[in-house]
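Contributing new records

If you add data, match the layout below exactly. Sequence lines come first and carry their own label; structure lines follow with theirs. Keep one chain per record. Anything else will be rejected by the validation script.
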Amino acid sequence: MKRRKFLKMVVVFSLVLAFSAVSLTVSAAEKKPVTRKMLLGGRLGDSWFVLSQALAYFVNKQSDWLRLEVVATPGVSAGPEIAMKDYEKYVFISPYAGMTLNPTLKQMEYYDKDRIMGYCTSNVWVWITYDEKIKTAEDLVGKKVFVGRPGGARTVYEQRVLEELGIKDKVKLLHGGYGGGKNALRDGLADVAVMQIDYILPAGFKKGAFIEDLETRKQVHYINLMPKEMQLKLGMVPLKIFAGALDPKTQKEDIYATVDAVYWCADARMDDAVVLEVTRILYENADKFASWHAQGAGISKESVSTYIIDPERMHPVAKKYYEEQGVKIKPLGDLLP
């Protein structure tokens, strides 16, 4: 009797193990193997790097099979330069200026395959000075003007502005990043500098850390050098800053800044499944980025589906996904004041 009871227990236990093994095998078969990609997020501490960390967090938490690791690069424009050499390995941020100029540059191998998955944030810049007497292009003649690094994408546009104003050969150009411009202006080494401000879609403006630091010395004044018509002629993206938005004392009139929008991109040859997964999770979490960085407040279900340059620069997989969600795909300019 005891032996029969023991044998029955063994049979039952064996059946349980067998069913468990089958269940585990089926589960393993259904689960996709993990795919790992790197997200080139720009310079440590920049808004787009922090927001890229947020996107990677959402993907890694919510995807059954895709994992993103955020990697720092020398700057916002470095993503395409790295990714084009190994396009299956990376997704990346890419700015408008780079998307526009890279296809014309030999050193970039005329790269034109970056495709938009969704909007990240915008780099917005203005012309500033301590000298309240500098108000027009003529007032810059003979002055020291601090612009971007030689060969930099935004520097090309800054120099185009000076050329269009007819004063490029009448000023002394100094070069460097925004931090270098801040230091040069503060220390009296430059009279005018191109400077980044904080901007949140659609019409949120703040001076930003660079200008706030400069104003510990004395007031900063804003020079309206880039009217809308000029920017459109030069292939720039104009942005109206309403009078007093930056400072009621030193910005008494409307001025135009320019927008260098930053997008999360993938190479046109990237695996469609990866593009779809990133796009889906970006869209589904579009209202959660503000808790990661103030600039994240500009990310919304309306803004992520925008494009820059032309609609063909949006990845077809991302475009199809947004259309399936009933989202209108439109140029970023439609959201700008």
